[in-house]
Fold this sequence. Notes:
The chain is of the alpha+beta class. The chain has a domain at 9-65: Chitinase A, domain 3, CATH 3.10.50. Helices cover 25% and strands 16% of the residues. The protein has helices at residues 11-20, 48-61; strands at residues 24-28, 33-38, 41-45. A three-stranded antiparallel sheet has the order 1-2-3, with helices on one face. Helix 1 (11-20) packs parallel to helix 2. The chain starts with 10 loop residues before the first helix and ends in a 36-residue tail after the last helix.
Amino acid sequence: xxxxxxxxxVYDTALKIIIKKGFRVWLESKTHLxxxxxxxxxxxxxxxxxxxxxxxxxxxxQPTAFRDYWWKExxxxxxxxxxxxxxxxxxxxxxxG
Length: 97
């Protein structure tokens, strides 16, 4: 079990957060993609959680103008080299408290 995982029971919360951030949201009927727009910056994803993730990248990068790969973080690639082994840790739901 994880403290939080992407699942349809989280979608409503993700959409509410996106709206509270000032984005307009809709489901595109032709592609079935979840969409959001604010100040001309638009985003599309297969899921509301993915959409919220794209908005988090936008908010982290804070672009002032559109350019190719405005979202890209510099540095060595990580995606293809991720380990299959979880680090040792005590999940929050197992901690005494």
